Amino acid sequence: MNTYNGTIAISVTLFMPFSVSDQPALLQLWFAGPALQVEYDPLALNPEDRAREAARLSARKAYEWRVSRSLQRRLLDPYRSSSLSHSAGHALWAASSQHEQMGVDLERIRVIDELALGELVAQEDEMRLLRTLQGQDRTRFFFRLWTLKEALVKAVGGDFPADMLRVGIRPGACVTPATGGVAAATTGSLPGDVARACRCHSVRHMTRTMHQGYPRRGRNPGV
């Protein structure tokens, strides 16, 4: 996870069976900006999205919704799994034809009360780390943590935001090749290149811990 252009944090997590091949995962990502909202067509929405659109009361969120659904419309290929997120007028779509479960989250970096929000979603060791940081370092770490947690919750079909407390990072964890890989993470620069997909042992551990907590569900939570 990184910050991109000083404004966007992104976390992508793939949830896969524990006995997958060591071959690299085929993961496709698309990133769209506010200009795509001109392609929005409410008549093309599925019944579920029509109901959700009718329930939306915030005009501030309306253009993000239009961008994300315009992007979704463009990508109609039959993927085995996909996940969509939007923030600050941008949308991110992740899809794979190989894996059954995945999650993605996209958030705008902004001024917030990291410690107050952290009490709602962060585990004890994560809060200790938050308190040691100051200024932009604390803000960036918080959004890195948030996007990772939300992506994991989506990947296993969990309850948002209740299950944010049930996943987290391990102190000292780093991105290294994982034997018998179970998860993938991405880091890079948006929108130019969504850089490298890599096997991440710490993400694999968190995904496994999360999944053991409750039965797997068939769909990712929407955005």
Distance, first to last CA: 20 Å
State which percent range the strand residues make up: 15-25%
Strand runs, count: 8
Content-based structural category: alpha+beta
Record the strand order, biggest sheet. Answer: 1-2-6
Average of per-residue pLDDT values: 68
- Number of helices, where a helix is a run of at least 4 consecutive DSSP H or I residues: 6
Q: What portion of residues is helical?
A: 25-40%
Sequence of secondary-structure elements: EEEHHEEEHHHEEH
Largest sheet: 3 strands, antiparallel
Backbone CA Rg: 17 Å
Low-confidence stretches: 1-7, 16-20, 172-223
Q: What is the molecular shape?
A: globular
Q: In total, how many domains does the architecture comprise?
A: 1
Notes on the structure:
- The protein is built from 6 helices and 8 strands.
- Helix 3 runs antiparallel to helix 4 (124-132).
- It has one domain (3-211).
- The model is unreliable at 1-7, 16-20 and 172-223 (pLDDT under 50).
- With 223 residues, it is of the alpha+beta class.
- The strands form 3 sheets. It has a 3-stranded antiparallel sheet with strand order 1-2-6, covered by helices on one side. The chain has a 3-stranded antiparallel sheet with strand order 3-5-4, with helices on one face. A two-stranded antiparallel ribbon has the order 7-8.
